[in-house]
Amino acid sequence: MQARGKRIPYSVAMDNITIVRHPLIQAKLTKLRDRNTERFQFRVILEELTALMVYEITRGFPLREVQVQTPLESAQGGELARPVVLVPILRAGIVMLDGVLSLIPNARVGHIGVFRDPESLQPVEYYVKLPPNLTDALVIVVDPMLATGGTAAHAVSMVKERGASDVSFLCLVAAPEGVRAFRSTHPRVPIYAAALDRQLDEHGYILPGLGDAGDRLFGT
Asked: What residue ranges of the chain have pLDDT lower than 70?
């Protein structure tokens, strides 16, 4: 008899982090974790997974009413009431960008270059370019991993310093240590992830994780 599988909750919210457990998301995440997934597949799946995650993160975005003309008559509809700004953390976050833009093509895009020092595990900033007028924007900071939390927290601090007040952080895999560190700096910024993994190893990598997303994306 063929196994029918088990149903899982669509999403689980706890302590300002939402773990999106949609079956399609979990199936794609499993492919990303697989060490045998080739670079091209890894890139495509990461973009697809990000697009699916966007449905959850935008669930509460406000709409305003608009009138459009169909081929037959006028109809009432809705459009996003506030501008959206996407801020990928370089380098791996840039690949997530297309997944979000496929659903929100009019979003403005900023870039933040931050890397984690391999010795201190502290964030080191090397590039910041953000759109103007972030005050009224819905800002989504994206990075595949939330490991130590330092890089993500630093990036969110940067967009807040430029005026952003409504900020969310979107990742694929998070570690408990990173969630705690992030919340200590930004307790009101919601985190959206596809998985909350077990722990970090002594080098700051998430276990079981999916390896270094940037290295797997770019072959470095």
From this structure: 1-14, 121
Domain chopping of the chain, boundaries:
11-218
Q: Provide φ and ψ at 151, rounded to 5°.
A: -65, -45
| Pairing verdict, β 74-80 and 63-69 | antiparallel
Gap between the Cα atoms of 58 and 80, Å rounded: 10
- The answer to whether 149 touches 177, Cβ cutoff 8 Å, is yes
- On whether the pTM is more than 0.85, the answer is yes
Residue-wise pLDDT for 147-195, tens only, equals: 999 999 999 999 999 999 999 999 999 999 999 999 999 999 999 999 9
Tokens in use for 41?
Answer: 């597949």
Give yes or no for a cis peptide into 198 (omega within 30° of 0): no
Residue type, 148: T
DSSP 69: E
Q: What backbone torsions phi and psi does residue 39 show, to the nearest 5 degrees?
A: -55, -45
Instruction: Note the Cα 191 to chain centre separation in Å.
Output: 8
**Which CATH architecture describes the domain 11-218?**
3-Layer(aba) Sandwich (3.40)
* C-alpha to C-alpha distances, 61 to 12, 79, 99, 183, nearest whole angstrom: 19, 10, 18, 22
Helix axis angle, 39-57 to 93-101, nearest 10°: 60
Interacting residues of 202 by C-beta distance below 8 A, sequence separation 6+: none
Across-strand partners of 108? Answer: 85
